[in-house]
Amino acid sequence: MTSMGYAAIYAKTGTGYSAHVPDLPGCVATGRTLAVTRRRMREAVALHLKGMREDGIRIPRPTTLAERVDVGDAA
Question: What are the structural domains of the chain?
């Protein structure tokens, strides 16, 4: 089995961080710190994929790309 990597999007919230994986709708995580949210996101992806396999749902290939766009002093 080859390893796949999915893009996760992290956002600062009023109480910590939230994250989602665009290629896996419904796969989300939250946490008070970025480190906790990252750990929970890895766990959420693994659980999401396990559930999909158990339900006989095709696992989508990663297609989302994320890139930081620097805008200089415009922000």
Answer: 9-61 (3.30.160.250)
